[in-house]
Amino acid sequence: MASVVVVRGAGEDARTLLVHRAGAHLHGLWTYVAGHLEPGEKAWQAALRELREETGLRAFALYSADRCETFYDVQDECVAIVPAFVAYVDAGAKVRLNHEHDDHAWVPFTEAIARLPFGGQRDLFADVYREFVLRPPPDALRMPVDLARPE
Description:
151 residues; globular
């Protein structure tokens, strides 16, 4: 799995994307872009693919969030460790949701944190706000991928 916190704008004007789940998994909850890796796929590749598939968005920069989400997966009876990424998109980018979602919202991080259902998600968004919005992210966390080219 890989998860993606989407950011547009900077500083106090920054907004993050939440999507409202329409499918059976997490139905009716506000969450963010995430999904499973396909065979042979790297986590950062899955992050970009899921971003495109779920929202139609393309990032102009992708960073490791420098943290992994950890949670108990009851279906697979395991502890999941999921790398998180931060995707920056253009301010005017239009969202085109797939069948997994029935709504979306660009919200300030404080509102996103209030809407997210799980503590680990809220912690991730608080970290991203502090480390990727209020300050410039370190180049060492930028994914070495040319986002001008299709993957």
